[in-house]
Amino acid sequence: MFRPIFVFLAATVLAASAFAQDFKALQPFVGTWEGVVEMEAAMGGGKLPGSVTFEWAPGGKALRSSMTMEIGGQKVPGSEGLTSWHPGRKAFYFVDTGSDGSWSEGTIVPKGDNGWYYEWQTHTAEGQVMTMKQEQQFVDADTYTWRVFMKQGEQWIPIMKLVTFKRVKK
Question: Taking the model in full, what pTM does it have?
Fold first, then answer.
């Protein structure tokens, strides 16, 4: 009677160990990062200083993110998110809720040696659905660049210039 339970528990522990290895790839994100987002002219232009903090959720199986922006000299909430492994999609998957009432969800996959490719859909509070992508590249352990695009028809239109974020806290 104890043998099947022991085998089940051993298999569960081994599976959890293998599962945990998938999360090592997210470790470089942990910390607080700051930079200035410059929007493309077609999106109204303008610069938005911002920061994002990534930290492990309890249990270490998900990464929490919290973004703030500076508008008119005041820090305002941007979004809160959670990234974890999606076994069905065999990719990292994230959900974000925006302070504007939006909801975003999509995949994050490694791109090259130091890069990441995000693709997602944002559902606005007004009911619009936008397909977006982000290309991100770690320049070094404390610097990454990123750029966001929006899909219009079959084309990807940049909505912001290439941005550099620097880690300010580990």
Answer: 0.84
Query: For 93, how many CA atoms within 13 A lie in the half-sphere containing its CB?
Result: 8
Helix (H, G, I), strand (E, B) or coil at 87: coil
Residue 98: helix, strand or coil by DSSP? strand
The pair of three-digit structure tokens given for residue 71, joined into one six-digit string: 């508008």
Hey, what amino acid is at 131?
T
Q: pLDDT tens-digit profile of 80-91?
A: 999 999 988 889
Residues 130-158: tens digit of each pLDDT: 999 999 999 999 999 999 999 999 999 99
Q: Let me know how long the chain is.
A: 170
Which domains does the chain possess? 2-169 (2.40.128.20)
Q: How big is the chain by its Cα radius of gyration, in Å?
A: 18
CB 144 within 8 A of CB 138: yes
Q: Tell me how far apart the alpha carbons of residues 80 and 59 are, in angstroms, rounded to a whole number.
A: 18
3-state helix, strand, coil in the chain (%, to 5): 20, 60, 20
Phi (first) and psi of residue 84, to 5 degrees: -150, 175
